[in-house]
Automatic annotation (TrEMBL), chain A:
This is Spore germination protein. PANTHER family: SPORE GERMINATION PROTEIN A2. InterPro entries: Spore_GerAB (IPR004761). One of its GO terms (biological process) is spore germination. It is found in: Membrane. It comes from Paenibacillus soyae.
TrEMBL record, chain B:
It comes from Paenibacillus soyae. Residues 27-192 form the Spore germination protein N-terminal domain. GO terms for biological process: spore germination. This is Ger(X)C family spore germination protein. It is found in: Membrane. Residues 202-353 form the Spore germination GerAC-like C-terminal domain. One of its GO terms (cellular component) is membrane. PROSITE patterns: PROKAR_LIPOPROTEIN. InterPro entries: GerAC_N (IPR057336), Spore_GerAC-like (IPR008844), Spore_GerAC-like_C (IPR046953), Spore_GerAC_C_sf (IPR038501).
Automatic annotation (TrEMBL), chain C:
Keywords: Membrane, Transmembrane, Transmembrane helix. The chain crosses the membrane at residues 266-288, 362-380, 392-417. One of its GO terms (cellular component) is membrane. It comes from the Bacteria. Coiled coil: none annotated. The keyword Transferase does not apply. This is Spore germination protein. It comes from Paenibacillus soyae. The keyword Transmembrane helix applies.
Length: 365, 359, 438
């Protein structure tokens, strides 16, 4: 079944859930001037990698990545997918941990961290256990529900900007791409490193137009720019570099008289929280999907077991520094998931397509 | 078989839920058991902080105001102690105004500003002001004035209530930005308790690097607001021959470097309405007088600012492309004192009130 | 001879079983029927006329249908089905004939549970044939088909399955037919039994049937490719599958200008959201996250809650409980006493509870908004779901504040997204001929 709207909204939802928290701080840290260069670079990498991935998937005639890799042999596919499995698990742990930290910081001062993590993981496990079609449908529904709020906050976040901070647009350091191998930039790839992998997992139950999806990724570009530039234009480089979550700070300075609510951050946090829950659900689903592909396990219990394991892992992380260290280790797996998996998909896809042609020709003869 | 299992799962879930409910309301504290201070006064006396909180207490009938005072070594410690002593929990989330005592402001408020930005329980939108008299005296004076209006201090600063362009408005985040910025200082209002009105505006203070370095009159504050593009509507300007009301103002400015010195050229367009005339001045004459008066005031103010190397005009912002970041870092000390500002005032008398011009 | 004795013995326990000795065309005959189901004088009158007509010319055949091998069970089933029997003494022959039935149904009236502002106001009645007739009147199309099934252990409950050929999803038609044929021996006295007969899960929070009293709703459903089931003695049509959109749209809206239609539907969506969110939001804002409120608002709420002894969760649950009682009571009571309950519940109790300082008066406003908005959705069966969902949000809000509220919304959305009937997702916007997104 062709479900363009579901897939596209899921794609946008996942990424906007990730963009607005850790990403701006990393980009602001990566360079002092001309932040648009790392943003565009990151985005170009994202688009290119996604293009390769989708191309490979198209050659594979709408098979899922799992089936496609399995066509290259069970060992090969296990070797290829094991790092992805580790990567997704780490993403799940980091996301659950980091977001409960944020929630506790902003809304629930006295609630113990494990309770917030239990909520996050519990809800995402429930959503994940319903299966991919339900996840996608609820994604679309939630996207529709929270979009007005997110748009409202994005629009009002420009209240305190000083456009002078836009300049200078470039300097030698940023033009030389020296940020490229710096830790902050590599860490910023978290925002779009693994989100798109789900596209290879949802086929064949859901089909979608690859071209439209690529087009829709353009919508992300302004979001990337806004997430970095709103705090920059409000505070300036020096001040925003001191914040852990610059975009949240920038929305916190917005004053809207006509709401009964004091903080527009509230709306923003809530819609982003929804997005993150859906993101975690789909990551859980992918992880368990990989696991059940190789080990014979019923799906729902596997989700439960996996969530419990994640929960225990999350409670073992003690402070924010460990989260950052985990993010650092995660970089290697992220680079693997970002570059090797799409490349492998393309390579195996080409091989598959050629084989398909050969058999067709053989049949014709 | 399957149904029985489902039932068991449901029962376990319900039990879990009840357990969570019984033990799980960590943040559950009803609003009437929280104290929501709206104004905080901070002073520093011999390395001890003195904090005064103004807390509205909702009760049957009118809202009463309560003042709480405490001293200690850090602000959060003081708040904790007050919270312990009070019958309800202090919740600083609704704090609206922070008043720094003048002495403390002169010493530097960096620490408290950073506390405010770091602690999640405080909003960065909190307004700041400097208090021109001992802080406990100030609170006692305004307390005797308004027994049942807790929000009077807030209204003084709210754009849609009591604020007017003579008063600068500054929030904690703007103060924080000015501390970290290379090119931007800020002004915050100075208030004291009044005799006829509850609060009296006393001009504003120039904050450089978190310290109060200079005071400006309210007329000068108006000019700064104009320069920063905040519309100065509603202002009445008294001159020899006439009084005018400024209806709107707009500014265009550009920065350039001439002979190694930074120069700002700008044009402020004013639209005014005639309110009062003395004698028979021509419109041309009034225009000229307005322009000359504003120019003089501006120059005087600039001289003051240059002396303290405090760029409250944010003029450095205009040179972001001309100077490198290293140079901008030295903007206040090396370049700002030699800044030339060439501001032209352009006045249009939009209307002459309800009378004809030559009436 | 033996058979007629056995039947006669039965009349002792069935007092309305009638044995009338008559002479038809000179032949001694016994007329057997349930007196309660037929119009006796008219039937007999008609019978005599036909008998005379047949007797004139014997080649015209006989009266009624000959029953070749009479058995008691079969005969009784015929009688219960409203047929009459003739027993000819000469030759010990049984024949069945269709008598003139007594009218045991209401005449067509206006609907009692659904109000129509503009549009046809005739509603379905208990008689299944009348109902089919009503639908045929609304949809005089050759592609409308009706298939009858007999359900139940005695095989007497009639179910009609209506669909429009070419519009209905072939898979949907197939699976409904299959279930009805397979489970024909099971009872379908109520909708729960029908649901289990159709293979729906027992523990569902969303009704799988959309019901309507209005033929025009059935007509729209048919044209949208849905299936309509009519159950004997049920004065409404059962529309399958039930979709979320049915909560917000009725065919009647189309009798208003398009822009009003859209606004009305938007209003209904807002109402559903209000109903689910508001009680939870109240608890979240009052107890957990008062910081997000404006100070003026916060002070007002605090003022209204001074002296209220319990936490806001208990306060809200208490009043919601009373509200649910009022709702339920007003269904039970006769129409003439109903308003009394409303008055006692609404005005007296509401006023007293506030002045007794048991709850804050803001909560009264919140709950009034809740109860009003719960009735805005189309179809009473749908209001149950949203009435239930709000409790989940209430509990989560008490624990986690606004974050819990949103997490609860995610759970609800995911639940709704997971519901399917016959492979058609609850969230689907059903359109004929096109598989739509969502």
């Amino acid at each position: 079944m062709v479900k363009n709207a579901q897939v596209i909204s899921m794609y946008l939802l996942i990424h906007s859930g990730l963009i607005f928290f850790l990403y701006p701080a990393d980009i602001i840290e990566s360079t002092e001037v001309g932040h648009w260069i790392p943003i565009l670079t990151g985005f170009a990498i994202h688009a290119a990698v996604m293009f390769v991935y989708l191309k490979g998937l198209r050659l594979a005639d709408g098979q899922s990545v799992l089936d496609l890799f399995s066509s290259a042999g069970r060992t090969w596919s296990a070797l290829l997918l094991a790092p992805v499995f580790v990567y997704l698990t780490m993403v799940l742990v980091i996301t659950a941990r980091a977001y409960s930290e944020i929630v506790n910081l902003l809304f629930l001062e006295n609630t113990p961290l494990w309770a917030t993590m239990a909520l996050l993981l519990g809800v995402s496990a429930y959503v994940a256990s319903l299966g991919i079609e339900s996840i996608m449908r609820s994604g679309l529904l939630l996207f529709g529900l929270s979009l007005p709020f997110a748009v409202f906050v994005l629009a009002t976040s420009f209240q305190n900007v000083d456009w002078h901070y836009l300049l200078p647009s470039i300097d030698r350091a940023s033009a030389s791409f020296s940020f490229l191998f710096g830790v902050p930039f590599l860490r910023s790839l978290f925002a779009f490193g693994g989100g798109f992998l789900f596209l290879g997992f949802i086929q064949p139950s859901l089909d979608y137009s690859h071209r439209r999806l690529l087009m829709s990724s353009l919508i992300l570009l302004p979001l990337f720019l806004i997430s970095v530039y709103v705090p920059l234009l409000t505070f300036g480089q020096n001040t925003s570099a001191t914040f852990l979550f610059p975009f949240l700070m920038a929305t916190d300075t917005v004053d809207v008289d006509y709401l009964i609510f004091e903080r527009t951050t509230l709306f923003f946090m809530l819609s982003m929280f929804v997005f993150v829950l859906v993101f975690m659900a789909i990551v859980t689903w992918q992880t368990v999907r990989i696991a059940t592909h190789f080990v014979n396990l019923p799906f729902k219990p596997a989700v439960m077991i996996w969530t419990c394991a994640t929960f225990i892992a999350c409670t073992k992380i003690e402070d924010w520094q460990q989260v950052e260290r985990l993010l650092g280790w995660n970089t290697y797996f992220r680079l693997y998931a970002m570059f090797v998996i799409p490349a492998a998909t393309l390579a195996i896809g080409i091989r598959y397509a050629r084989k398909g042609d050969n058999t067709n020709e053989a049949r014709a003869q | 078989m399957k149904r029985a299992r489902n039932k068991a799962i449901a029962a376990v879930l319900v039990c879990l839920l009840i357990m969570l409910l019984l033990g799980g309301c960590w943040d559950n504290k009803d609003i009437n058991h929280r104290s929501l201070p709206i104004v905080m006064g901070i002073a520093k006396r011999e390395s001890q902080y003195l904090v005064v909180l103004q807390i509205p207490e909702p009760g049957l009938g009118a809202t009463k105001i309560r003042l709480v005072e405490e001293t200690g070594t850090t602000i959060s410690e003081i708040v904790d102690r007050i919270s312990k002593n009070m019958e309800s929990q202090i919740d600083l989330l609704h704090l609206k105004v922070v008043l720094f005592e003048k002495g403390y402001a002169e010493e530097g408020v960096n620490d408290s500003v950073e506390t405010f930005m770091r602690a999640h329980s405080l909003s960065p939108k909190t307004m700041t002001a400097i208090c021109d008299e001992p802080i406990n005296l100030f609170f006692r004076n305004i307390d005797s004035f308004n027994k049942n209006n807790g929000t009077i201090l807030i209204n003084f600063f709210e754009k849609n209530a009591g604020w007017n362009p003579h008063i600068s408005a500054d929030r904690v985040w703007e103060l924080f930005r000015s501390i970290h910025s290379y090119t931007r200082d800020t002004v915050i209002p100075i208030v004291r308790s009044g005799t006829g009105t509850v609060i009296e505006s006393n001009g504003s203070g120039v904050i450089r690097g978190g310290k109060l370095v200079e005071r400006l009159t309210s007329d000068q504050t108006l000019l700064i607001n104009m320069f920063n593009g905040i519309s100065a509507k509603g202002k009445i300007e008294v001159m020899d021959h006439a009084t005018v009301e400024i209806l709107s103002s707009s500014i265009r400015r550009r920065g350039s470097i001439e002979d190694g010195h930074p120069v700002v050229k700008g044009r402020i367009s004013l639209k005014v309405s005639l309110i009062e005339t003395r004698g028979q001045p021509s419109q041309q004459q009034i225009k000229k007088e307005v322009e000359a008066l504003l120019s003089d005031r501006f120059d005087a103010m600039l001289k003051k600012l240059k002396a303290h190397q405090a760029d409250v005009l944010g003029a450095g912002q205009l040179f972001r492309t001309q100077y490198s970041r290293d140079q901008l870092e030295r903007w206040r000390t090396d370049y700002f004192p030699s800044l030339n500002v060439d501001i032209k005032f352009d006045t249009v008398i939009q209307n002459t009130g309800k009378l004809k011009a030559d009436a | 001879m033996r058979m007629i004795k056995e039947l006669e013995a039965r009349s002792e326990t069935d007092s309305d079983l009638l044995f009338q000795h008559i002479r038809l065309a000179g032949q001694p005959t016994i007329f057997i029927a349930f007196r309660s189901l037929i119009d006796l004088p008219a039937t007999l009158n008609d019978l005599y006329q036909r008998a005379a007509w047949v007797a004139d010319q014997p080649e015209r055949g006989s009266l009624g249908e000959e029953i070749t091998e009479p058995e008691e069970e079969a005969l009784l089933a015929l009688l219960l089905g409203g047929q009459a029997l003739l027993w000819h003494e000469n030759g010990n022959r049984f024949a069945s004939l269709t008598p003139i039935a007594k009218s045991l149904s209401r005449s067509i009236e206006s609907p009692t549970t659904e109000n129509v502002l503009r549009g046809s106001i005739s509603a379905f009645v208990e008689d299944i044939d009348t109902n089919i007739g009503l639908i045929r009147k609304h949809e005089p199309s050759g592609s409308l088909h009706t298939r009858d099934f007999r359900l139940g252990s005695s095989g007497q409950k009639r179910v009609s399955f209506l669909y429009k050929e070419g519009v209905i999803d072939a898979k949907l038609k197939e699976s409904i037919t299959q279930r009805l044929v397979q489970n024909a021996e099971r009872d379908a006295g109520d909708l729960q039994q029908l649901a289990s007969l159709l293979g729906f899960p027992r523990w569902t929070l969303v009704t799988k049937f959309n019901t309507s009293e209005l033929p025009q709703e059935a007509e729209t459903a048919l044209n949208e490719g849905k299936a309509v089931l009519l159950l004997e003695r049920m004065p409404f049509a059962i529309i399958l599958p039930s979709l979320m959109w049915d909560m917000f749209a009725v065919q009647n809206d189309r009798n208003f200008p398009a822009i009003f239609m859209m606004l009305i539907r938007f209003l209904r969506m807002l109402a559903v959201l209000t109903n689910i969110i508001i009680p939870g939001l109240y608890v979240a804002l009052v107890s957990v996250n008062p910081d997000v409120l404006r100070i003026e608002m916060a002070l007002t709420i605090a003022k209204s809650r001074v002296d209220v002894p319990y936490p806001s969760l208990v306060e809200t649950l208490l009043l919601l409980f009373i509200l649910e009682l009022t709702l339920e009571a007003s269904i039970r009571l006769p129409k003439s006493i109903g308003p009394t309950v409303t008055m006692v519940g609404g005005i007296i109790l509401g006023q007293a509870v506030v002045s007794a300082k048991l709850v804050s008066n803001l909560l009264i406003i919140i709950l009034a908004a809740t109860s009003i908005s719960s009735s805005v959705v189309v179809g009473f069966q749908n209001s149950f779901s949203i009435r239930l969902f709000k409790y989940l949000l209430l509990v989560l809000s008490a624990m986690y504040g606004v974050i819990g509220l949103v997490a609860g919304l995610v759970v609800i959305c995911a639940y709704l997204a997971s519901v399917t009937s016959f492979g058609i997702p609850y969230l689907e916007l059903y359109k004929p001929g096109r598989k739509s997104n969502g």
